[in-house]
Design a protein that fits this description.
mainly alpha; 0% strand; transmembrane; cell membrane; Putative manganese efflux pump MntP
């Protein structure tokens, strides 16, 4: 996996967390930078751990599927990308809530875990391509920390409109990364 693909993957993995952060930020009464950074760090740490867990699962299975690894990575990434696009095009069913000044750790933790499931699956697919998983996890974690912090701060101004579009863009990027992996495999034959 080339560095550009890794950067694109990192930001693609952070878009659903960004969308959630916009929602969380719009649900707060004037979110401050410290609260936004706190949320960013929580999301970033979880988003960095899940691809490592997925990679370990993928490594355990890799010796059984070496001949099909490019197809597995392609299908997982395209499937996740299409799922993110579908979710981004879907209706938003969030009910209006009272606006606290801060979210609890557990609310942020559960939201972060929910938005990092795709990173777990990406970690599985990364086990089948040549990538340093620690570097990939750090990049994904840092991108997520940055995007969530920005999302929280922008949440009040931008609302759900940009959040949904960010998820669609992230899905398109995942589809393109999956297609690039498949293209690079066939180009090397």
């Amino acid at each position: 996996m080339n560095p550009l693909s890794l950067v694109l993957l990192s930001f693609a993995m952070s878009t659903d967390a960004f969308a959630a952060a916009i929602g969380k930020g719009s649900g707060l009464h004037k979110p401050r930078f410290a609260e936004a950074l706190r949320a960013g760090v929580i999301f970033g740490c979880i988003e960095a751990l899940t691809p490592i867990i997925g990679w370990l699962i993928g490594q355990a299975a890799s010796r059984f599927v070496l001949e099909w690894n490019h197809w597995i990575a392609f299908v997982l990434l395209v499937g996740l990308g299409l799922h993110m696009i579908h979710a981004g095009l879907g209706a938003d069913d969030d009910a209006p809530e009272d606006k606290p000044s801060r979210h609890s750790f557990w609310v942020l933790f559960v939201t972060a875990v929910a938005t990092s499931i795709d990173a777990l699956a990406v970690g599985v697919s990364l086990a089948f391509v040549e990538v340093n998983i620690v570097v990939a996890a750090i990049c994904i974690g840092l991108a997520t920390t940055l995007m969530v912090t920005l999302g929280m701060l922008l949440g009040r101004m931008l609302g759900q409109l940009v959040g949904k579009r960010a998820e669609i863009v992230g899905g398109v990027v995942l589809v393109l990364v999956g297609a690039t992996i498949l293209y690079e495999h066939f180009a090397s034959l």
